[in-house]
Amino acid sequence: MAVTTSAQNLERQSAANPPLTNDPRVSRMLKHLEENADAITEEQVRITEIPAPSFQEKERAAYIAKLLGATGLRLETDAAGNVIGEQPGSKPGAVLLAAHLDTVFPAGTDVRVKREGGRLLAPGISDNGTGLAALAGIARALRDAKIKTSYTILFVADVGEEGEGNLRGMRALVEARKKQLKYVIALDGSATDYVTAAALASRRVEVVIEGPGGHSWSDFGTVNPVHAIARGIARFVKARVPETPRTTFNVGEIEGGTSVNSIPFRAAIKVDLRSESETELSQLESTLRESMKLGVGEEVAAARERGMVGGAAELHLSVSVLGIRPGGELSTDSPLMAAVEAADRQLGNRSRVERSSTDANIPLSLGIPAISLGGGGASGGAHSLNEWYEPAGRAMGLKRVALTLLAVAGVEP
């Protein structure tokens, strides 16, 4: 059986359909994006300076709703908190263009944008200030160019993509509209040198160990939850993980104790597990659970050696999964992949296919064609207080997204 590649699919489509830019409305849209790139950057600054930790996106959502509403889209906010702007199409089906609202930074983080030459610095400036600014900018460009599409376009600012948000906004969107969705394009960050077309599976796990607590002097020898969890961590981080399929782990949070001279009554960690293989991911979670169990056992044994009995030598271990991000991959012959390749060719851009964990995980896991694209420009330091963004190349990224979107949504005559 012959296998059709996305490049072959693209050639067939090109033979049957003229380039999108032959349509003067599309040319006007691209010109609009070029001419308004600086204004979109300033909008990105304003968006970034509205704090939006996961589960606290309401203020930023309200601002994005105003931006989308100003383009004339039908606007709604769903029960999850997603802001949805709808541009109706002429036939059944929809293309979802989404950018997540939330950041990884806790409430109280200074998100004021600083300028150093042509560089913008602030937590969340690229992830996902870039995506949100691109979302609003493309909606305006389509309005001003008076482009109508075959499929409905849903412009969405969604909640809960980061961390313990567990993709809750995208889960709600797909659950409510899965019969309608033809394609999903997630806007995340700035990069244009790759397209995320494979979903990286991940699990976020919390481990809690509890004990009786006590005074550091008078109750010395009593089981210590911090000691127990440290023993477990020491075992777990020695785990051997394969390079192929790539598998990673990270102990990202640790907490416990009330004062330096108190034996803690509680200790907890949160661990991020990721793999290209669901089998390896399950094995890694099992290793984590076993390591923590052994760490508790060692601490209890040490307490008993010091003569502690009863409650003074008892610990309680609980392990819970905070979030599961499913895996999946876009078919190589998908029209969505062909659309990205066509946009890259037209713009002189070269990109590779990458695997990552994004909002695209949810639709991909359900067989809905989905990708994640950057909104243009350059960035670094994601998820750190030193995150930065440079807008050079922004217009090309915006055009890449817009051309990909229109290729799968269809431009009406």
Quick overview of this protein structure:
The protein has 413 residues and is of the alpha+beta class. The protein contains 11 helices and 19 strands.
Can you offer a commentary on this structure?
The protein is of the alpha+beta class. 36% of the residues lie in helices and 25% in strands. It has helices spanning 6-16, 24-35, 37-48, 58-69, 129-145, 168-177, 225-236, 278-305, 335-347, 361-365, 394-409; strands at 74-77, 83-87, 94-100, 114-116, 119-121, 152-158, 181-187, 194-199, 201-210, 214-215, 247-256, 262-263, 266-275, 316-325, 328-329, 352-356, 370-373, 378-380, 388-390. The strands form 5 sheets. Strands 1-2-6-3-7-17 form a 6-stranded mixed β-sheet, with helices on both faces. It has a 4-stranded antiparallel β-sheet with strand order 4-5-19-18, with no helix packed on it. Strands 11-13-9-14 form a 4-stranded antiparallel β-sheet, covered by helices on one side. A hairpin with a 7-residue loop joins strand 18 (378-380) and strand 19. Helix 7 (225-236) packs across helix 8 (278-305). The chain is elongated. It starts with 5 loop residues before the first helix and ends with a helix. Mean pLDDT is 95; it is low at 1-5 and 10-16.
The description of the largest β-sheet is: 6 strands, mixed
Q: Major sheet: order of its strands?
A: 1-2-6-3-7-17
Average pLDDT number? 95
Low-pLDDT stretches: 1-5, 10-16
CATH architecture tag of the largest domain: 3-Layer(aba) Sandwich
The chain-level structural class is: alpha+beta
End-to-end separation = 37 Å
Large-scale geometry: elongated
Strand content: 15-25%
Could you name the CATH topology of the largest domain? Answer: Aminopeptidase
Q: How many helix segments?
A: 11
The CATH superfamily title of the largest domain:
Zn peptidases
| Domains, number | 2
Sketch the topology as an H/E string, one letter per element.
HHHHEEEEEHEHEEEEHEEEHEEHEHEEEH
* Count of beta strands: 19
Top CATH class of the largest domain: Alpha Beta
Based on CA atoms alone, the radius of gyration comes out at: 25 Å
